[in-house]
Amino acid sequence: MTKTRYAQVGVGGRSILYSEAILQTYPGNCELVGLCDNNAGRLAERAQWARERGVEAPTYDASAFDRMIAETRPDCVVVTTKDCYHDEYVCRAMELGCDAITEKPMTIDAARCQRIINTQKRTGKKCTVTFNYRYAPAKTQVKDLLMSGLIGDILSVDFHWVLDTVHGADYFRRWHRNKQNSGGLMVHKATHHFDLVNWWLSSVPAAVFAIGHRKFYTPQQALRYGLVNRAERCVECPKSTAARSHSPKSRTPIA
């Protein structure tokens, strides 16, 4: 059996899910042939992780993306960079003759979406966006129920998604919180929910209107909770440090 050759660009947090799928879940069908990132430390770490599993995956700096494609000859490029760079690597991969698989969202604004669509049409290559919510059993059951016609024709949808403050806070601790990186939560997070509705109904919208407001994660809210002397990242916050230093699980304050 001929294996599908994969190269991966972007080896941050969630990228390991894709590396594991290639090396551990489907090793009989997949081969990891190259890794690319702008962080040399992360590249070395992922390469060592692959080596421990019997795979020598050459590494390339982000500036050498084209060279990686030329030297490793992947069939498909997995794009797990920051959202704002998705279009850059998805389009370049297709232009160089590869299919592309990208973490959601496909990209962060209309112009970048159109660029990907135009490139896909021009090259004839395939771009897959990994909307993992579709594969959750409860979401699949809703799809089956709607497609069976059991409840009749769907004339309107009222879909609310309640995001708790524990998971919700994650999006304001890291690069996601800056719209120039993620497009904001209406893109980075709600892309799941837009996709679910479209998939459930086997339809696409003719027009879209959205309105949003940041009401909880604000400086005013922090003051209400007495969170003064806040740092750029929560792990650097004096209150976070104090809490961790008194935790029974860790007696070492975070620097």
Describe the structure using short key phrases.
six-stranded parallel beta sheet; 255 residues; 6 strands; alpha/beta
Beta-sheet strand percentage? 5-15%
- Counting H and I runs of at least 4 residues, what is the number of helices? 12
For the residues shown, what is the average pLDDT? 89
Structural class: alpha/beta
The level of helicity is 40-55%
Gyration radius from CA atoms, angstroms: 21 Å
Basic shape: globular
Head-to-tail CA distance between termini: 51 Å
Strand order, biggest sheet?
3-2-1-4-5-6
Biggest beta sheet attributes: 6 strands, parallel
Total number of β-strand segments?
6
Detailed description of the structure:
With 255 residues, this protein is α/β, with parallel strands linked by helices. It has a six-stranded parallel beta sheet with strand order 3-2-1-4-5-6, sandwiched between helices. Helix 4 packs parallel to helix 5 and helix 6 packs parallel to helix 10. The protein is globular and about 55 Å long.
In a few lines, what is going on in this structure?
It contains 12 helices and 6 strands. The protein is α/β, with parallel strands linked by helices.
SSE blueprint:
Layout: E1 4-9, H1 15-25, E2 30-37, H2 40-51, E3 59-61, H3 65-72, E4 76-79, H4 86-95, E5 99-103, H5 110-123, E6 127-130, H6 137-148, H7 165-170, H8 179-182, H9 185-188, H10 191-201, H11 219-224, H12 238-245
Parallel strand pairs: 1-2, 1-4, 2-3, 4-5, 5-6
